[in-house]
Amino acid sequence: MKYIVILGDGMADIPMPELGNKTPLQCAKKPNMDSLARRGEVGLVRTVPKGMPPGSDVANLTTMGFDPRLYYTGRSPLEAVSMGIELTDTDVTLRCNLVTLSDDKDYESKTMLDYSADEISSEEARILIDEIGNRFNGPNISFYPGISYRHCMVWSNGPLDLDLTPPHDILEKPIGEFLPKGEINKIILEMMVESYQILKSHPINQARISKGLNPANSIWLWGEGKKPSLPSFEEAYGKKGSVISAVDLVKGIGICADLRSVHVKGATGNIDTNFAGKAQAALKELESGQDFVYIHLEAPDECGHRREIHNKVKSIELIDSLVLGTLLDGLSKYDYKIMILPDHPTPLSLRTHTSDPVPYVIYRKGDKGKTTVMGYDEFQASDTGIFISEGHTLMPRFLAQE
Questions:
Q1: CA 387 to CA 374: how far, in whole Å?
Q2: Could you tell me if 222 and 234 lie in one domain?
Q3: pTM (predicted TM-score)
């Protein structure tokens, strides 16, 4: 038996007037998902335990079968693991976004215009993060370049419980009330403020502005945590597996769980990603002897944050045709099960994550139909009456051999 999870990050939503008061899942042409929903099990699952933040870190731990109430130690250390950063037990890591702030005179008066600086290229970002490191790296602080706008700071013997705000939660809002507060955060705030002076006139940003692109004119630190410790997925579930993702967070979770992290050329974490390449890589992993593949697709989430309504619909359609379609063609020689779900909603109208339950479908080859739904979306999933309140139990349900 082969097991494949297709995780459409942020794919769930709420009805949009621009879409005829439908959700992107309801609007998208997705014949493959709808076909599996008509023949498989469809329901809702709570992926974010009550009282926990609705981040992709918490939600992907859940969907991968690990209770985040037991294993969550913060977002950035998972990314650090994927980046190959060696962490000690006393290191605290922080996600470092390159963001675009407005040009208001006082830092606290600036507005968060873009949490990703127009999806800055990794090549440009490396130069800017190296510049930041030249200024701030020392015995206790180290900056590491990552992919696009996503980078990492390691603080030796640093504090926890910093209460920092994700930049994608405050788009188009003045940043003053969301800046790090108190003595414990003084060094973080000072670095963020000074970073604006370092980056605003940098040649990289001047060139970006001349091209009509947002400048990466400040760092934004958040997502603090310490070195994670997860059980092996194979030990927990008896399956040898792989993870396929363009983002360090999900790759890091997989690596911590001893899943093989697979690089796919052209995988970007956005709507221009190599959708078909991810599916082909998954089939290759199964052919090589792996039992389980977790395919993470970031595009719907990025479209949700950026309020790209029609691109979010399009991203779902591309997942259906290029990922699920490719898989169904290549899986015909196996007995297999497929599970499709988001990790959390990223409503276009809110431009950030919520902790609402998300729709899932589980299909096993040969299934004839377990529900009366006509397709896969939030409302049809709710109508089945199936609700998994403890999200981490969905993975063993999926892996069970009925």
A1: 18
A2: no
A3: 0.88
